[in-house]
Structures are given as structure tokens and as C-alpha cells.
Amino acid sequence: MKVLCRANTQAKQIAISFDDGPATDSTSGILAVLKAYNVPAVFFCIGKNIAGNENLLKQLNEEGHLIGNHSYSHHFWFDLFSARKMLADVQQMNETVRAVIGLSPKLFRPPYGVTTPNMKTVMRQAGFTAVGWNIRSMDTVIKDEQKLLNKISRQLQPGAIVLLHDTSKTTLAILPQLIELVRNKGYELVRIDKLLNVEAYA
């Protein structure tokens, strides 16, 4: 199935994306840094994490960031779900988002980055655009801040999509330095719908 993992461009523009939130203890910190540096991002949220964090979801939207669908359950065996079960899961996520901000995400990031024939069917039926990445930070396992910065810096290229997690305390710690590093290299941080020229909401 078609997954957009980067933009086909020579312009020095990249997009940053955050997976797995909203997280009560760290997403607000990520948002504060993005606001201070005037950087837009996309947050591929897990539906079950929205309960109790509705205000964070509203803040994401109000501050100009995009909300993408990262499934409702993020189940370990999500890629083995039947098409019917998978469709129900992603629709439940969209309904949860719509109940909070009145919008239905069109951008979908497959849990664990795994795609299947059933998922291709679901993407077509539900009208989603599948979005991946081409810079995987490994920020869920790398705890050394300088190592994480270096790993991302080495892979920067025009049109890149960076995978981060707003559940990672290391990511929160390095985010100001990362933004400065990217800009010092001459890159502009743009929202992913602009980078890929896609519609973010149905």
C-alpha cells in the first residue's frame, strides 16, 4: 500500500511528527517548546489516550498543530486484525477526536509502521492517507541526549519526516536544541500537510 514517507522536493523543508500521545506528563511540555519556537507539528494520537486528556487535544488543535490517527487501541496485534475490526478501530479513533474538536483526521500512521493488505482496504474504504517517516529517531530507546541529536542531525535531508514521540522525556529535553540545529542547517520546519500537499481532515 502507498505510504508517504517523505516529500519529493529539493526545498530545505522538513516536518516533525509525534506519535503515541496525548501523554499527561509530557505532551504539554512539548507544546510549550513548539509554541516558544513557533514550530508546527503533527501528533499521531492513540484514541484510548485521549480520555482524560481532552484539553491537551483541544490545545493541539488551537495552537495550529495537526492531529492524525494512530489507531484507537494501538494493539500489539493490530496488523493482524481483520479489515472489519481494523476499520472499526480507526473509526472509533476518529469519532473520539471529532467529539472533542469537531474534526475527523484523514492522516493515518500505522501502529509500529506495519502495513498489510487489510490495512490497504481500510485506508481506501475510510479515505485515509497513510503517512510514515524517513527519519526514525529511536527516541523511545535512546536516552543519551547528544546521541539522539546526532542521530537525527546525520539524516536531515530536504522533504524529510522525523518520527518522534511526545511520550519520550528525552525528546522533550532535546527539542529546543533540535529545532535550533535544524534551523542552523538552513531548514524550515513546516506542517506535514504543507510538506506533502495533502488534506489533514475530512
Jot down its keywords.
202 residues, TIM Barrel, two-stranded parallel ribbon
What does this molecule look like?
The protein is built from seven helices and eight strands. The protein is an alpha/beta fold. 40% of the residues lie in helices and 14% in strands. The model has no long low-confidence stretch (mean pLDDT 97). The longest helix is centred in the middle third of the chain and has 19 residues, at 83-101. The protein has a single domain, classed as Glycoside hydrolase/deacetylase (TIM Barrel, Alpha-Beta Barrel). The two termini are 20 Å apart. Strands 1, 2, 3, 6, 7 and 8 form a six-stranded parallel β-sheet that branches. Strands 4-5 form a two-stranded parallel ribbon. α1 (27-37) runs parallel beside α6 and α5 (145-155) crosses α6.
Précis, in short:
With 202 residues, this protein is α/β, with parallel strands linked by helices. It has seven helices and eight strands; from the N terminus they run βαβαβαβαββαβαβα.
